[in-house]
Amino acid sequence: MSAALALLVRDVKLAWREGGAVGVALGFYLIVIVIIPLGLGPNLNLLARIAPGILWVGLLLAALLSAGRIFESDYEDGTLDVMATGPLPLPIVAGAKCLAHWVATGIPLVLLAPVLGLLLNLPLGAFPSLALAMLAGTPAVSFIAGIGASLTLGLRRSGLLLALLVVPLYVPILIFGVSSVTPYVSGPNSLWQPLLILCALSLASIVLAPFAAAAALRNALR
Amino acid sequence: MSPPFTISFEARDIACERGGRTLFEGLNFVLEPGGALLVSGPNGTGKTSLLRQIAGLLPLASGRFSAAGAEAATPVAELCHYVGHLNAAKTAMSVRENLAFWADFLGGGDVDGALDAFGLAPLADISAGLLSAGQKRKLALSRLFAAPRPIWLLDEPSVSLDAASVKRLDAAMRDHLKQGGIVIVSTHVPLKTKFAQEIALGREHAA
Fold first, then answer.
1. Under CATH, domain B7-87+150-206 is a member of which superfamily?
2. At what angle do helices A192-221 and A127-151 cross, to 10 degrees?
């Protein structure tokens, strides 16, 4: 277990030190949300209605932007070779690295989202449910991104292919993520149902994605 | 000083296939505790592939590896230190952080000893990104001391090392053999270590 913890701490440290991944993801999220009201015009009701959807789509794209780096640098400098000879099973290595992506990128994006909600005239009552839904859904975002990142390992310009592979898998997260925020914006609806489904999606991907990613890693190491 | 290793390593009928082409087949060798094996041969004959197979990174086309001795219950890959062409050093971390991570991850602990092994102690707090190619190589080799493992797989270990460091590497390998460890090296540079066995890959096609 201490090996997994060492790996998690190292990856979070590297993500913050290298700066690129986290900073670019946060900056991208900010820019996307800032330009959308400029394009749509000053219709506050319209903005409030589409705010949950835009915040979620922006978050998914921003997370994807940094997803390629989950395994890439370790693959390129030979670190993955050595990790494969370590005492940790490869699925745990993959899981720890996806978890590190969530801690280093997912959580900062979730923290930024409510601030960006202000720019989109999101009703104040929707803020807690937005934060809760994103906190519940972003682990699935990171772990599913891990599958795409490991499958595209070693390819040149893999970013676009990664997006093509992973975005379809994000559809359920997007649907239930948005529907757990909308009740506050447009009418009565149950809040807990979509939130619980989000939790289920995250739990399932935390359990299953590391195995898929590990299989892809094994293949990439050959 | 770590306790002496008591492990013997056997390769039986190993074959390697890369991209539909058979690189070598019918490879057999046995290494007793303290045994050293030199893998030689021209470029592209499968030296790196053989080491990667032993480390469990490449699948075997046929045959099997087995280890006998005190650590026999552990999978072969986890008995091995693999030092390949890439140095597995993170440029955003200091030399000490790099070694400390490997010590934690691979299950060792003696980071200071590992820093001393190739004289990296004065550079301990410098970012690994600032090291020269030879120093990065020494950092990769220092990993051998960050966690004790009986089998060393060294792929061209002396590349970009200066003469004094090659001597240190030689001495380190001899110490490891004296403790009952096993060393499997692929190299073009003559080393002073006495290799009990040599496998020359790619010769049968030339003959």
1. P-loop containing nucleotide triphosphate hydrolases (3.40.50.300)
2. 20
